[in-house]
């Protein structure tokens, strides 16, 4: 007979997995990818190292789970930010949310954006950028449709903005604390790059 987990057992395993991901997120936020180890995560979560290995076969699998959770949360925040308003409000909100939230947890954001990681995790990093690009693309498409932005390839413009913003953040994230002008300057850059006038903000 095939063993089937009871709901209670599955709930306990799910809770354990969530605790491990939370611990790994804390370690990444403090020490980065280079400082992450299964033992460090176990210590952070208050469990045995073997328990971590029962849930995740290796470091890459664990970091992938962290990426999945954190990226979903960050993308949801940007999507919510671009849901309403005119094009300038949407673009400004997208940039402010993306960059502002990154600067609130610079070590973790550096892991998500730029720190050298395993190849498997790099694949998720690309998905991370694509998801943010889609949110920016929605705001740009809305602006073009309204006539507030000149005709352009919304996807290309969105990808360029996400890449540019990520590149700018790598410096401040790696050498915190960042200048207070970083986010406002990024908003102004985005407005100029899309062909809108800063005074229309």
From TrEMBL:
Pfam families: TetR_N
Presence of keyword Transmembrane: no
GO molecular function, one term: transcription cis-regulatory region binding
Residue stretches spanning the membrane: none
Taxonomy, superkingdom: Bacteria
Alphabetized SUPFAM superfamilies for the sequence: Homeodomain-like, Tetracyclin repressor-like, C-terminal domain
Entry keywords, A to Z: DNA-binding
InterPro entries: Homeodomain-like_sf (IPR009057), HTH-type_TetR-like_transc_reg (IPR050109), HTH_TetR (IPR001647), Tet_transcr_reg_TetR-rel_C_sf (IPR036271)
DNA-binding region, residues: 37-56
Domain HTH tetR-type: 14-74
PANTHER family tied to this protein: HTH-TYPE TRANSCRIPTIONAL REGULATOR PKSA, HTH-TYPE TRANSCRIPTIONAL REGULATOR RUTR
Name this polypeptide is given: TetR/AcrR family transcriptional regulator
């Amino acid at each position: 007979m095939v063993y089937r987990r009871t709901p209670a057992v599955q709930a306990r395993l799910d809770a354990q997995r969530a605790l491990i991901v939370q611990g790994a997120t804390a370690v990444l936020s403090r020490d980065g990818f280079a400082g992450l180890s299964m033992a460090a995560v176990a210590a952070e979560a208050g469990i045995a190292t073997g328990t971590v290995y029962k849930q995740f076969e290796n470091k890459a699998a664990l970091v992938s789970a962290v990426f999945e959770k954190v990226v979903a949360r960050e993308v949801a925040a940007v999507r919510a930010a671009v849901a309403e308003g005119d094009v300038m409000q949407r673009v400004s909100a997208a940039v402010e949310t993306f960059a502002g939230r990154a600067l609130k947890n610079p070590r973790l954001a550096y892991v998500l954006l730029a720190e050298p990681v395993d190849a498997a995790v790099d694949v998720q990093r690309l998905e991370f950028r694509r998801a943010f690009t889609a949110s920016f693309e929605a705001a740009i498409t809305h602006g073009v449709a309204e006539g507030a932005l000149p005709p352009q390839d919304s996807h290309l413009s969105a990808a360029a903005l996400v890449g540019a913003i990520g590149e700018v953040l790598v410096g401040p994230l790696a050498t915190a604390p960042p200048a207070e002008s970083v986010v406002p300057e990024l908003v102004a850059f985005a407005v100029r790059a899309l062909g809108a006038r800063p005074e229309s903000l």
